[in-house]
Amino acid sequence: MTEAASAPRPGAERPDEAADTRAKVHRTETKTKTAVEAKRQGPTLDAIRADHRVKTFIRSANQQTGAIGYTEHGERHANTCADGARFILRSLGHEARRCELAAIAAYLHDIGNVVTREKHGQTGALLAKDILEDLGFDYEEIATVMGAIANHEEEEGGTAISAVSAAVILADKSDVHRSRVRNPKSTAFDIHDRVNYAATSAEIKVSRKEKQIALYLTIDTEVAPLMEYFEIFLSRMILCRRAAEFLHCTTAPSRSSSTTLGCSRCRNDRPDECVTRSRRAASWCARASTGTRS
Predict the structure, then answer these.
(1) Is 9 within the bounds of a domain?
(2) Given 48, 86, 133, 206, which is the most exposed site by the fewest CB atoms within 10 A?
(3) Is the pLDDT of residue 263 over 80?
(4) In angstroms, how far is the first alpha carbon of the chain from the final one?
(5) What is the secondary structure of 234-258 as a DSSP string?
(6) Cα separation of 176 and 232, whole Å?
(7) What are phi and psi of 246, to 5 degrees?
(8) At residue 293, does pLDDT exceed 50?
(9) What SS3 state is found at 196?
(10) Does residue 17 belong to any structural domain of this protein?
(11) Which of 8-12, 88-92, 107-111, 128-132 has the lowest mean pLDDT?
């Protein structure tokens, strides 16, 4: 595995690779666009973003999650997840309208935090229903988006129930980055702050030919040891593995792991071993940093 920084730019293609077989890369700064075909078939993400209720609910939800010590859950997170969900389905060859519904569901998935953090997926699905009705979505699409929003959280029993739902889960759990940390005092970081702040880059890679979806993270182990990542993300990794399986994909070559990590310190070329054998990986990375691989 190559280091995250050396991955090809999104959309880059070598002459000997066909468009449907190359590995595609999504980074947080990449912005996908609504396909013309999707616009002809109904309202799009642009209508959702422009809605005054959505703007207010997301802004208020972000304030409320901040008040209880959570990382950023505002428009930045909503946009990153929408972009990632659309990217995943588009890279796997799904139809344009389904890709757009994935972006819409991902944009709205945390809207329920405006009421309360507990059961925010289910609350958000009900809030989204009225908005989608008013904007002219048909009820089949509303049902798909509601189901995706309600099933995105592992702590609330969420699981992939559709391709749209699976894409939302993968995009949401892939948004790990230091820009989400709101605590201004590093000395007061909890484990969630440390792990997010340690993630200096994140990118989703999708290979349609190999049917693989992977998250590549660059983690600064001076900020947080690798084991802290596994401590808080294990349940999310399992949820992501199941989401990828729903899309008929794996999340690492010949492994059942749910996340692929590219360690910037040890440059592990078998990152799936890190995921499936996390305790061994922690000591492996420690040995690698001192040049004593075994």
Answers:
(1) no
(2) 133
(3) no
(4) 18
(5) HHHHHHHHHHHHHTT-BSBTTB--S
(6) 12
(7) -60, -30
(8) no
(9) helix
(10) no
(11) 8-12
Host domain of residue 187: 23-289
Number of domains composing the chain: 1
Query: Does 262 have pLDDT greater than 90?
Result: no
- Return the structure tokens found at 213: 């979806």
Q: Give the whole-angstrom CA distance, residue 253 versus residue 225.
A: 25
| Adjacency order of strands within the sheet including 212-219 | 23-27, 199-207, 212-219
Residue in the structure block whose two tokens are 């329920």: 112
- Model confidence at 176, pLDDT cuts 50, 70, 90, reads confident
Contact 194, 71 (CB under 8 A): no
Residue 1 lies in a domain: no
DSSP 3-state of 134: helix
- Residue 222: pLDDT band by 50, 70, 90 thresholds? confident
Output the pTM of the full model.
0.75
Flag whether 10 is in a domain: no
Q: Identify which of 95, 253, 243 has the alpha carbon closest to the alpha carbon of residue 171.
A: 243
Cα(250)–Cα(256) distance, integer angstroms: 7
Q: Residue 175 above 80 pLDDT?
A: yes
Q: Are 85 and 103 in contact (CB under 8 A)?
A: yes
- Name the residue with higher pLDDT: 116 or 151: 151
Whole-angstrom Cα distance, residue 222 to residue 241?
Answer: 28
Q: Are 15 and 21 in contact (CB under 8 A)?
A: no
- CATH code of 68's domain: 1.10.3210.10
